[in-house]
Design goal:
- By secondary structure, this protein is of the alpha/beta class.
- It has 2 domains: about 5-125 and about 275-290, Rossmann fold; about 130-275, 3-Layer(aba) Sandwich (Rossmann fold).
- It has 13 helices and 8 strands.
- It has helices spanning about 5-25, 40-50, 75, 80-95, 105-110, 130-135, 160-165, 185-195, 210-215, 230-235, 245-255, 260-275, 280-290, and strands at about 30-35, 60, 95-100, 120-125, 145-150, 175-180, 195-200, 220-225.
- Helix 7 crosses helix 11 (about 245-255).
- The longest helix has 18 residues, at about 5-25.
- The protein is elongated and about 65 Å long.
- The N and C termini lie far apart (about 40 Å).
Length: about 290
């Protein structure tokens, strides 16, 4: 996951494809180009071609993280080196619209960059409307005693705390699964989430939280810490992972209940406010009326 060479090969392929479309005249003035990961050097190439070929396009970037987040791999491994700060500011300046998904991400990013009065910044849910129908929820009564760690294996996701949870003496009737260690296909991963009774996050870095949303869509009860993007996204009943013992107590309490309705209500809220790109789509439609 996140092979730092492979991801650049992929982004270079995307940029090459965009250059072909510009060269063949298939990209027209007024077209919108959306980068689902704003940390993409290809935005510079797009602006270069748009300006010099006189094909004005509208560019959008969805920000996930960057060096401004000390717990993200860029912040942790690269930090505040001048090259990366200049690069991110260039990306910000190149996008006509910079999109963030949560207030927590705004608060984090503005500690490094002056974005509060930058009119190119706005909030939108991510274009993931398909997720709720892609991962069918399994009823609570059909769940297995599985607790899943759905994150990538990285220091900021705190696998060490999940491993401590797995050793809790009152939870030995559960199978603890670290999804990334299981080498699953996407279909197998979704099936694991459908089987699981709980999904637990102890993350120190999260600007949205796609894997926990996927878990909830599958009917797994999410247990998350009361910090980061989780604070604004989750009902207090799910924010029970500020410590290993607190998470264990939540699991022991909720395993005795049918959590289906509470999870369904949570998914509906997350879908409406954080995983539907209505604001982004409405902005694009607004150009059509100008």
């Amino acid at each position: 996951f996140l092979n730092f060479g492979g991801t650049n090969m992929y982004k270079a392929t995307q940029t090459h494809r965009l250059a072909e479309l510009f060269t063949r005249g298939e990209i027209k003035a007024g077209d919108h180009i959306l980068f689902t990961d704003a940390w993409h050097p290809g935005i510079i190439n797009v602006k270069y071609m748009s300006e010099l070929l006189n094909i004005p396009v509208v560019t959008h970037g969805l920000w996930h993280a960057g060096s401004y987040d000390p717990n993200d791999f860029l912040g942790r491994l690269v930090g505040d080196k001048p090259w990366i700060r200049h690069a991110e500011q260039a990306f910000i300046g190149a996008f006509d619209h910079n999109w963030l998904a949560t207030a927590a991400h705004f608060d984090l990013m503005r500690k490094t960059y002056d974005i509060m009065h930058n009119p190119t910044f706005d909030r939108t849910g991510w274009p993931m409307e398909y997720t709720k129908s892609l991962i069918a929820s399994r009823p609570w009564a059909e769940k297995e005693n599985i607790i899943v760690f759905p994150h990538r294996i990285a220091p900021e996701k705190r696998l060490d705390l999940f491993q401590r949870l797995a050793k809790h003496p009152d939870l030995q009737h559960y199978q603890f699964c670290v999804a990334m260690e299981m080498n699953l296909s996407k279909k197998e991963y979704h099936e694991l989430l459908q089987r699981a009774r709980f999904a637990v996050s102890f993350a120190d870095q999260e600007t949205l939280g796609i894997s926990m949303y996927e878990s909830a869509c599958a009917g797994a009860c999410p247990i998350v810490p009361n910090r980061l993007s989780y604070t604004e996204m989750y009902h207090p009943m799910f924010k029970r992972a500020d410590s290993v013992n607190e998470a264990a107590q939540a699991i022991l309490q909720y395993e005795q209940q049918d959590m289906s309705l509470d999870i369904d209500q949570l998914v509906a809220k997350l879908h409406e406010n954080f995983f539907s790109a209505k604001q982004l789509i409405n902005t694009i439609k607004g150009y059509e009326t100008k």
